Amino acid sequence: MLAKGDSPRISRADAKAAGLKRYFTGKPCRRGHLCERQTGSHKCIECKRITDGHYSHSQKRRVCLRRYNHSEKRHIVSRRYQQSPKGKETERRARRSPFGQDTRWRLNHSPKGRERVRRQNSGLKSQDAKWRYRNSEKGQEYQRNYQRTYGRLPRVRARLRAHHLERIEVTYRDNPTETNWTRLQNLYARRHRDSH
After folding, report:
1. 80 and 55, same domain (yes or no)
2. Using an 8 Å Cβ cutoff, are 1 and 46 in contact?
3. Structural domain tally of the chain?
């Protein structure tokens, strides 16, 4: 916002004749803003800033943009721009940018790029080596020993949990009036912690 003496006072007609985009009359707008106005629309700059801020976040703007982006008009404009010299230059610059297709191709086919690709592929080969080891006789023997040692624990724990639950249910079924259900749940939780 401008103060009264910041900008020379000029009428809208004079601003239009001079080809200016903005002018300042020195009078506040109807909302009380004392600032420049747009020559074309006669709008106060501050009012426009406020309404544009509201509109940019509104559902109406999102719907309008979505409709435009999927319209035939947008595709025609886009095609026309891509075929223009400026559009072709922009496309050429984008392809040669650090993330463009040409740059990626050059990186992958340069000596350093080939080395990087080889390192990435060696990681895949190491995964293949792990797969071959797991499926060899030695690897399968190791897995059988591991299962014998550690594989039973989850099954045993699940069986113990089922046993505890069954005992609680039987106790509750036999003495429904004398049994405190929360006490049984606490007992089960304690036994469950002890079994781990």
Report:
1. no
2. yes
3. 3
Neighbours of 134 (CB within 10 A): 12
Please enumerate in sequence order all residues whose Cβ is within 8 A of that of 179, keeping only pairs 6 or more positions apart, or say none.
Answer: 171, 172
Written as tens digits, the pLDDT of the chain (196 aa) is: 444 456 688 888 999 899 899 999 888 998 899 999 999 888 899 988 888 777 666 777 788 888 888 889 888 998 999 899 998 888 888 777 776 677 777 777 788 877 877 777 776 666 666 777 777 887 788 877 777 776 666 666 677 777 766 776 666 666 655 556 666 667 667 766 666 5
* 26 domain residue, yes or no: yes
Name which of 20, 17, 68 is nearest 8 in CA terms. Answer: 20
Please report whether residue 137 resides in a domain: no
Residues 99/105, Cβ–Cβ less than 8 Å? no
> Which residues are CB-contacts of 27 (< 8 A; sequence separation ≥ 6)?
34
In the block, which residue shows the tokens 């009264």?
4
Tokens of 46: 């501050």
Closest CA to 41 of 16, 5, 58: 16
